[in-house]
Amino acid sequence: MGKIIEEARIVNQERISGQIFRLRLHSPRIAGAARCGQFVMIRLGEGTDPLLRRPFSFSRIYPEDGDFEILYRVIGRGTRLMSRLEPGSASSLIGPLGNGFELPIDRTHPLAFIAGGIGIAPLLELIAQVMSDRGAKGAEKLHLFYGARTAIELLPEDFLRGWGIRVHFATDDGSFGYRGRITKMFEECMAAEDFRPFELYSCGPLAMQYHVAAWALSNDTLAQLSMESIMACGIGACVGCALPAATPGDPESEAFVHVCEDGPIFSAGSIKWNKILVQQTPPPTLLFS
């Protein structure tokens, strides 16, 4: 199914913690076509201010109700305007966009989910679908590694504990859970415990994804990475979300992929990570924010 332009009705707006909000929208056509890992472009406001739509991932999808939810953190003008949307108001959407996660075929394989900051958003629907497919007994083979700069940027602990999967928390400043980067905690857990994932799913800042991809490639582990990027159009026209592509057999290739069209989900080996880190500073967590 192609891209859908739809006028959505705001169902509910809720502050979850600090500057983290959950927005529920009624958009039957988009909700019916959406897959976990995909995203929508939302117009905020009636005129040209702000001019550009904002991209947000689906954090939960309820096709039977014609609804979906967006989890976001207020970090700038666009998300500040979004936090003021009231139930009953309308917003123009384009979606679903992007490729989405591929769900695991084998229900017995252990899986790890790694989230940095608001990167937890697209993983929520993914975890919900995996749990629905496996049942409560399958939760013991699912581990979520969830980190942020400080505790106020994390979802509340009870927001995640109810699913029955094991959650490992980390904060850069040590205000909650492990003190340090979530990727460092993950690497230490992999070295110390018997748990070893068959596949990784992750979303977070570019620097975090670099370390996730490096671990996956060095440990011959499948990985699906939801890439965050500054994005203006969502359809590949502005090339603002281009990333250097790894081209087997041609290491000197200057080919690029676009997060909006080729992603946002990429395998660990599909991105030329060393070129990103050399040529550009990792961007802030703006996509889906």
Main traits of this protein?
about 290 residues, alpha/beta, Elongation Factor Tu (Ef-tu), domain 3, seven-stranded antiparallel sheet, seven-stranded mixed sheet, 7 helices, disordered C terminus
How do you describe this structure in short?
The protein is an alpha/beta fold.
Polypeptide structure, described:
The protein has 289 residues and is of the alpha/beta class. The protein folds into 2 domains: 4-97, Translation factors (Elongation Factor Tu (Ef-tu), domain 3, Beta Barrel); 111-279, Nucleotide-binding domain of ferredoxin-NADP reductase (FNR) module (Rossmann fold), CATH 3.40.50.80. The protein has helices at residues 28-33, 77-82, 120-134, 157-161, 182-192, 206-218, 273-279, and strands spanning 4-17, 20-26, 39-42, 54-57, 60-62, 67-73, 90-97, 111-116, 142-148, 166-171, 178-179, 199-204, 222-227, 242-244, 256-258, 265-267. A 7-stranded antiparallel sheet has the order 4-3-7-1-2-6-5. The chain has a 7-stranded mixed sheet with strand order 11-10-9-8-12-13-16, sandwiched between helices. The longest helix is centred in the middle third of the chain and has 15 residues, at 120-134. The chain is globular, with a radius of gyration of 18 Å.
